[in-house]
Predict the 3D structure of the following.
Amino acid sequence: GAVVSQHPSWVICKSGTSVKIECRSLDFQATTMFWYRQFPKQSLMLMATSNEGSKATYEQGVEKDKFLINHASLTLSTLTVTSAHPEDSSFYICSARDTIRESYTFGSGTRLTVV
Amino acid sequence: DAKTTQPTSMDCAEGRAANLPCNHSTISGNEYVYWYRQIHSQGPQYIIHGLKNNETNEMASLIITEDRKSSTLILPHATLRDTAVYYCIVRGYTGANSKLTFGKGITLSVRP
């Protein structure tokens, strides 16, 4: 089946620094990928939709200058959390859409802790 | 906003069938019903999806009512490893409607 690889699985960074998270579709091409954030005991909240070769579409309330998304190829999307602060600490999850199988496959998530 | 409503939690005995209900009374004709589950601190795992007809795969069965306003996910023989949060999601086919919007889900606890 479809596989999505997300790295790193966890990261600890200092306040003010930037962190990049990678999401790769391993056995299919994904023109569309999605980035979610999940706080403890809450559901997944969609942050943005990433389209290959074009700008990402951000959900209301998500700062596009803080959460930079790049989808330069059909198999890779990256999320960069810029100038991270402790309130950005969360579980970040990516998803890739396989339009042939009409499926959405999720990565294993990245636990970000900002200290 | 999520277009589905699910009970907050339920439990079932190991080895028995788990029937997880979902209401989606405002579903449109071209919208799919997807089910995912999430085990603690992992990414969601795809279970099954359907449009109008009932569907079955190696993991579960999806029963959609004729008016499509509700559905039931059936895990035929629940095991302890099926303990997770299960999300019922309605998804459109194209454009902005093609994204998956998660509600609160239902927490299934399988007891020995």
